Task: structure prediction
Amino acid sequence: MPGRAGPRHGDRMNIEQTLTVRPAGVRDVATLTDLGARTFLETYADQIPFGPLSEVIAETFNIERQHAEVADPDCMVLIAEAGDHAAGYLVAHPTTPPNGPAAATMSISRLYVDAPIHGRGVGSALLDSALTLARRDGHEYLWLTVWEHNLRARDAYAAWGFEDLGPIPFQFAGLQQTDRLMVRSTLRRSAAA
Result:
């Protein structure tokens, strides 16, 4: 359902009992667009000027792009739902990291969780599902890049067993930035370290 917001800060629903993870479909495109744009803005609004930030949001989180990813058979798009609310989502593609393992790998390009339920197991559930599917499809490693200033995400990925392989420079809306390259074997069964 388009525009479904996640639980509010005051909601005390038991996420673990109501959380489901499933492949996203065409019916989820509007929800993915909204959730992605909102969580991206929440994460970077204090760090990146609004003009460049809004350009990236318009380019990345639009109906056409979300539809293309959901329809791409090589793209893994998973959505986590807590009850009837979209709680988070993950997007991954088969590709090899710069300066990383040359084995069969899959890149997580997005792992977003609705802010009011950070720390309640949504990211772990999405990552566990991605690990299972990547391993099933013959990928030996998952990798991602995370912005060096997003300490919450860096700490979470380290706790989930991702190894920090060092800095990766990149351009973000015309601004020079630095990400950290993080890699994890799919052979370990759980996202929990």
Summary: The longest helix spans residues 29-44. Strands lie at 19-23, 76-82, 85-94, 105-113, 141-147, 163-172, 175-185. Helices lie at 15-18, 29-44, 50-60, 63-71, 122-136, 151-159. The two ends are 34 Å apart (CA to CA).
